[in-house]
Amino acid sequence: MSVPAAVSMRNINKRFGKKVIANKDVDLDIYHGEILSLLGENGSGKTTLMNMLSGIYAPDSGEIYVDGKQVTIASPKDAYDLSIGMVHQHFKLIDVFTALENIMIGLPKEETEKKCRKEVEDICSKYGFELDLDKKIYDMTVSEKETLEIVKTLHRGAEVLILDEPTAVLTPQEITKLFTVLRNMKNDGKAIVIITHKLNEVMEISDRISVLRKGENVGTVNKEDTSEQELTEMMVGEKITLDIQRDFVEDKAKRLEVKHLTVKNIEDKKVVDDITFDLYSGEILGIAGISGSGQKELLEAIMGLQKCEEGSSVIYNSTAHGVHELVGLSTKEIIQFGLHLAFVPEDRLGMGLVGNMGMTDNVMLKRYRKGKGPFLHRKQPEATAQKIKDELEVVTPALDYPVRRLSGGNVQKILVGREINNKPTVLMTAYAVRGLDINTSYAIYNLLNEQKKKGVAVIYVGEDLDVLLALSDRILVLCGGKMNGLLDGRTATKEEVGYLMTNLKEGE
Ligand SMILES: Nc1ncnc2c1ncn2[C@@H]1O[C@H](COP(=O)(O)OP(=O)(O)O)[C@@H](O)[C@H]1O
Ligand SMILES: [Mg+2]
């Protein structure tokens, strides 16, 4: 007699509106005592599929079985009653409450604080979680919040635990810790699903891997029987090389000399703290750091968008524009030297694109000052817009279709594409591939590399350490606004960068 799967999904279909098929005829089994990775590009339907187990969405058709019995999951409460718990990508915690208070929300009155504390402490020691129950959420790191969400879910009695991209915001050290507790939970018989698109993690943690592509389950494989190459092919449906091209440009010239750059925030805290480095033409300087380590403020300071403290200096030097001290100049003056910043924020439309306008007009927005006469020439912007559309495969019905009606990923491609097409001397990008699928991300890496080969000095602020290590010539590591290391991108290791991201060097 075989043990039924903890959860079985059969012929699951889910559409949004008429056009978007999020899941198509998906079969999936999740067993007790295993870690199943759900792998797939952005938009392949991973979150939607799991949300049908956590009670956020109901399938249009198909069946769900829990321990062999057919069930209907119509709400998160139904999911909990079936011992299914999900930790979402965006945490649902209340900032001003402590960890314990967050766990207690919604619990029955009989559950006293003392009893709950004991139960949670037991869970923590059983699986190896480190959690300060009296810490307020706003004092917590992302990793602590993640831990809290998992512990909360376990406290509610989850036997099936679904984690939606838990490692996206963690450092390598934190990921190692998370994986240790996941293994402990698995050995205790829990069924664990981890959603991720990082292949190295999949190979490290999973027993089995199911791959979604365009809403369909294209296959489930045992970790032992597969390879990163095979998984990539399953994910993207065609052979792509994982290597990011990294040319060595011989003729380098010093483009920026950043010295003692310091920026304070409104609370008088140094968010950029005495940063000193040189930036050369023909190189990609990667900037690594956990989010909020001063990346944004550093780039904004160079662009004249932040007030710099006494002693800060940014010397710009190029044959075309001469030598200038940038600190004290306006952003408008700085842009004229060919410095460009593409910062991809959460709210993409907030940053330099006009939602009601189409691609062509948005490209023109940055170009019109370059025009000689009073007449706007549409031809060139139109060609540029078309080029961006082709190279980055922007999906839009027409070049004049309002960009606010496009999906977030497409808006982002336009934003990055436009800066790249501005013929910069210094190109700074932050989170350029956030939320983009693998193919589009590679298109962007290639564009940055093209810029580098043309002699542009590129700064790349990124979140994915594997990409930073493959793309950058040098890597500057930020930790709490301070510069905590400047490494050779060709020899640096992930552990090294991760360590510098989280541990300030001695004496600092
Ligand atoms: N609430 C929603 N309304 C409309 N479309 C959605 C919604 N949620 C997801 N989608 C679409 O469904 C598809 C699958 O999305 P999702 O499950 O979030 O993918 P993944 O988690 O693999 O990135 C995408 O095309 C996405 O745009
Ligand atoms: Mg998702």
The description of the largest β-sheet is: 6 strands, mixed
Helix content: 25-40%
- Find the CATH superfamily of the largest domain: P-loop containing nucleotide triphosphate hydrolases
* Radius of gyration using CA atoms only: 25 Å
Distance between the termini: 62 Å
- What's the average pLDDT? 88
What can you tell me about this protein's structure?
- Mean pLDDT is 88; it is low at 368-374.
- The protein has two domains: 7-236, P-loop containing nucleotide triphosphate hydrolases (Rossmann fold, 3-Layer(aba) Sandwich), CATH 3.40.50; 254-502, P-loop containing nucleotide triphosphate hydrolases (Rossmann fold, 3-Layer(aba) Sandwich).
- It is globular and about 75 Å long.
- It has helices at 46-51, 76-81, 99-104, 113-127, 142-155, 172-187, 199-205, 228-236, 295-302, 331-336, 359-365, 379-391, 408-420, 438-453, 465-471, 494-502; strands at residues 7-16, 20-30, 34-39, 61-66, 69-71, 84-87, 160-164, 191-196, 208-213, 216-222, 254-264, 270-280, 283-288, 313-318, 322-325, 339-343, 426-430, 457-461, 474-479, 482-488.
- Strands 6-7-8-3-9-10 form a six-stranded mixed beta sheet.
- With 508 residues, the chain is an alpha/beta fold.
- The site of adenosine-5'-diphosphate has 11 residues, from β2 and α1.
- Magnesium ion is lined by residues 46-47, 164.
